[in-house]
Design brief:
Layout lengths: L1 H22 L8 H16 L4 H33 L1 H13 L4 H16 L3 H9 L11 H48 L11 H25 L11 H8 L8 H12 L3 E7 L2 E8 L9 H27 L1
Antiparallel strand pairs: 1-2
Length: 321
């Protein structure tokens, strides 16, 4: 029975990956993240007020409610459809897991920056970059547009692909959906500003926790995947990553960004502007070559190598245990 459940979960995850690669996130299908966002916005408006202590307590409660609702809802939905028929339940679980990953979406987002940039259309490339980053993009030159796109691919390989796969392998759709709700919470309220520093504290800490293991394993699979890429600087990549990952303000994002920078021989981080306010992010990697549009395509290659090896690694582990 256990062997059957293990093999079934692997096939469900495989089907979810293929579904995401084929259709991505079509607008005509209801996406769970929209529901997460509405619930978070409602609780934000209802509870994010009062003293700092009150905001922090309400933030903890908000995180508990959102994640709890998602887990209970996912288990209930799956229980209903598995009760109808096991194949129906499996199909629903495939869709739920596919909605938590974004292989096609991340690739398309990076290409939408790279294509106009490769043709010299800086204005269009800046606009496309503004769709995926929070920094000001109106005055960015090519190297900074490339840096923004590469950093996005490196960071979101974890958030949008390997971390949800990690939790799907452990607990199927319910834990994959729980992860996505935590990630959505962090993206909406996990800011260190006046409004959210207290209310978003629990969401940010929980997001750090659930990404801790996937981020480090993804750094490893980036490195292993780079063996198959021409010009990869894999020999010294771990030294650079160990040196620079801790410089990132996130305890997890630095691992993927530092590894990607090291493997490509470029430097990420540096000066950014957010609504006209300058922010300096610690540099990661060594500037052995200038950033060009080709590095966006290389980062996409690393993304694919990273998630494929991540998937194969956990499939192997599941079969072994």
């Amino acid at each position: 029975m256990i062997d059957f459940l293990i093999e079934t979960r692997i096939w469900i995850i495989t089907a979810a990956i293929l579904l995401d690669i084929i259709i991505g996130d079509p607008k005509w299908l209801p996406h769970p993240v929209i529901g997460f966002g509405k619930l978070i916005s409602f609780l934000d408006k209802k509870w994010n007020h009062g003293s700092a202590r009150r905001k922090k307590n309400h933030g903890i409660l908000t995180t508990t409610v959102v994640v709890g609702v998602v887990i209970i809802g996912s288990v209930s939905i799956l229980g209903l459809f598995y009760h109808i028929h096991v194949l129906v339940g499996m199909l629903v679980e495939v869709y739920l897991i596919s909605s938590t990953i974004a292989i096609k979406g991340l690739r398309q987002a990076a290409l939408q920056v790279a294509l106009p940039l490769s043709q010299g259309h800086l204005v269009e490339a800046r606009y496309e970059l503004s769709m995926i980053v929070g920094r000001d993009t109106q005055k960015l030159e090519e190297k900074d547009i490339v840096r923004g796109a590469v950093e996005t691919v490196a960071e979101n390989t974890v958030d949008g692909i390997t971390a949800p796969l990690f939790w799907a392998f452990i607990g199927g759709a319910p834990l994959a959906m729980a992860y996505r709700s935590i990630n959505t919470l962090d993206s909406m309220v996990g800011y260190k500003n006046e409004r959210y520093s207290e209310f978003g504290w629990a969401s940010a800490k929980l997001d750090d926790l659930v990404n801790w293991v996937p981020a480090r394993i993804t750094s490893l699979t980036f490195w292993l995947g780079s063996f198959f890429m021409k010009g990869s600087r894999w020999r010294k990549a771990w030294l650079v990553t160990m040196r620079d990952a801790k410089k990132h303000p996130s305890p997890n994002s630095g691992w993927s960004e530092a590894m990607v920078a090291a493997l490509m021989g470029v430097q990420l981080g540096g000066r950014n502007e957010y609504k006209g306010i300058v922010s300096h992010r610690a540099e990661m990697g060594d500037p052995l070559q200038p950033l060009t549009c080709q590095h966006i395509y290389k980062s996409i290659g690393l993304m694919h190598g990273g998630w494929i090896l991540f998937y194969l690694l956990f499939s192997f582990i599941w079969f072994v245990i």
